[in-house]
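Consider the tokenized backbone below.
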């Protein structure tokens, strides 16, 4: 296999999902070389996120396209096909495409595709090798399975909002749709595991994935902190539940992030601030002690940090091998030489013109990701795909 082919070249994905969790998954599979056909509803103008703007891409004449920034964030390396699955003709087309596919991914409400004969039980008999991934808010089973699922609801129900925000403030969602994104990542892992099983045995299966389940799973240390101690964690703003000082600190002209992970780093940090007595104080000498006396320690550290400029703090602590970093705005992020070196901003030629996208973070030495298709305008590939005997030809 040539390095440019991608590790998933030849894998065919039929994408019946929309918004973010499913599309994040299928974009990742597409970046890795899979051929992805995205099915969109002609009655609604396609994926909901096509209308989630501004901003939108405009053509050379200033006309707005249906490529919103939100839609483009999760829909490159796909072909767009407009099919109405509520019609017998549309259902027949989906069954035909599924017959060519290795993977089908959908995010309808549990049972929502059964009335069209497109649910897993309806398809599995004729397509025993199909890997069928179902994403929903609460999963295919359980008392909440019939409830709709949205990222914000999952963040609230699954507990992450109770941990996010200032100690005395309101519960706060994460700044992006992280429950959707992480669910899409779990979906990609599950699909590849099921594909491996299918390749070994010929047996397909259904993957039942819930936004809320995925969000509970990535409570990670705070979730296990609770399960171990029985103590409900409280919001700490940017503070870490198990490490001090590990927080955002105000400087004379901005903010810096400190991540002091061990006692030797803490000693060097205190020496830098001209506060050497703190590292010898029994209340602060060890991380467990610093946790116990977090507020007392911060009352000493924060005024000292505010006397120094951001660049001074970063340069000084980096020279002492104390983990420190800036809080950057997005213009600073995408203007950085690090983003350029790692190719985390890419340009692609879409139908209305050139678009700027975020790159894929995976760097495979033999089979790198590829960017073959810009995010498609609605239904752009309908005729070509539906008239082809090999609809997944990439």
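A designed sequence for it:
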């Amino acid at each position: 296999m040539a390095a440019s082919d991608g590790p998933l070249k030849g894998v065919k994905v039929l994408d019946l999902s929309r918004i973010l969790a499913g599309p994040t998954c299928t974009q990742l599979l597409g970046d890795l070389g899979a051929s992805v056909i995205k099915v969109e509803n002609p009655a609604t103008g396609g994926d909901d996120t096509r209308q989630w703007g501004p901003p939108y891409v405009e053509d050379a004449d200033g006309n707005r396209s249906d490529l919103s920034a939100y839609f483009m964030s999760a829909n490159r390396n796909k072909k767009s096909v407009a099919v109405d699955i509520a019609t017998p003709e549309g259902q027949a087309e989906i069954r035909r495409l599924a017959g060519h596919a290795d993977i089908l991914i959908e995010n309808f409400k549990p049972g929502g595709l059964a009335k069209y004969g497109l649910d897993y039980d309806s398809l599995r008999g004729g397509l025993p090798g199909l890997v069928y991934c179902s994403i929903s808010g609460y999963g295919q089973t359980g008392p909440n399975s019939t409830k709709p699922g949205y990222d914000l609801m999952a963040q609230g129900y699954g507990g992450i909002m109770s941990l996010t925000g200032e100690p005395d403030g309101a519960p706060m969602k994460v700044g992006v749709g992280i429950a959707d994104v992480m669910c899409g990542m779990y979906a990609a892992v599950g699909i590849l595991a099921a594909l491996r099983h299918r390749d070994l045995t010929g047996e397909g299966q259904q993957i039942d994935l819930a936004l809320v389940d995925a969000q509970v799973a990535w409570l990670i240390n705070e979730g296990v902190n609770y399960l171990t101690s029985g103590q409900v964690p409280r919001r700490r703003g940017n503070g870490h539940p198990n490490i001090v000082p590990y927080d955002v600190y105000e400087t004379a002209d901005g903010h810096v992030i400190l991540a002091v992970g061990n006692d030797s780093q803490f000693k060097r940090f205190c020496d830098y601030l001209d506060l050497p007595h703190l590292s010898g104080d029994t209340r602060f000498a060890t991380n467990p002690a610093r946790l116990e006396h977090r507020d007392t320690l911060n009352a000493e550290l924060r005024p000292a940090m505010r006397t120094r400029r951001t660049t001074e703090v970063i340069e000084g602590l980096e020279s002492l091998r104390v983990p420190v970093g800036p809080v950057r705005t997005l213009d600073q992020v995408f203007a950085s030489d690090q983003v350029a070196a790692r190719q985390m901003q890419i340009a692609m030629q879409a139908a209305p013109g050139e678009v700027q996208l975020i790159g894929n973070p995976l760097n495979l030495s033999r089979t790198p990701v590829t960017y073959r298709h810009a995010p498609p305008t609605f239904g752009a590939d309908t005729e070509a795909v539906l008239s082809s005997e090999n609809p997944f030809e990439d």
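The domain at 3-218+337-386 is CATH 3.40.50.10540 (Rossmann fold).
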